[in-house]
Each structure stands twice: as C-alpha cells, then as structure tokens.
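Narrative summary of target 7.
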Amino acid sequence: MSTRTFTVDELEDLEVGYVNELKESVDSGRWTEHFEIVFKADDDKLYLVSYDEGLTEMQEMWGEDSYPEARREGDDYIVECPEVEIYEEMVPVKKWRKL
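Modeled conformation, tokenized:
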C-alpha cells in the first residue's frame, strides 16, 4: 500500500477538513466528532486521513489537535496517509412496510 507523509501545515494548506472528496463520520464523543476524510493532494492522488472536529465553540481545534495520528518529528507534526480510491457499489437494503 502506497503512503505519503504530510506535515500538518501541508494538510492545512490543502484545506483538509473543508475541501474534501469524501468526509465520513466514524465516531463521536462528548466534545469531538471523528471523521475519515479522503482528500486530493497536489500530486492529484487521493489520500485518507483521520480528522477530529470540536462540537462546541469551546472545543475549537486547530493544527495537530485536529489530526489524532499526528506525531512530532523535528520541528513539525507529520501524518502518514495511505493512498486510496473512491468507488461506488450497490448495496441491497431490507426494508419493511405496513400491510
């Protein structure tokens, strides 16, 4: 699996969290919501990153706080992002109706 290392500054320059190809909520806590985001990088490839958003004005998050997988390396925080593709699939759904 191909991955690319981004600094948090690079992710913020790409406006990850605001400009996305796909943004899916995967969990929610009392103060934050956790997302998996697919974004397009400057190399026109798609990458996946975990991203957190605060749920109230008191839980504002920015920088490395928004990326739970960010780790410090030297003077920067970095995030390893796997390359992904988006695809569509048909999923059968069972429903009910009153008789």
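The chain has a mean pLDDT of 92.
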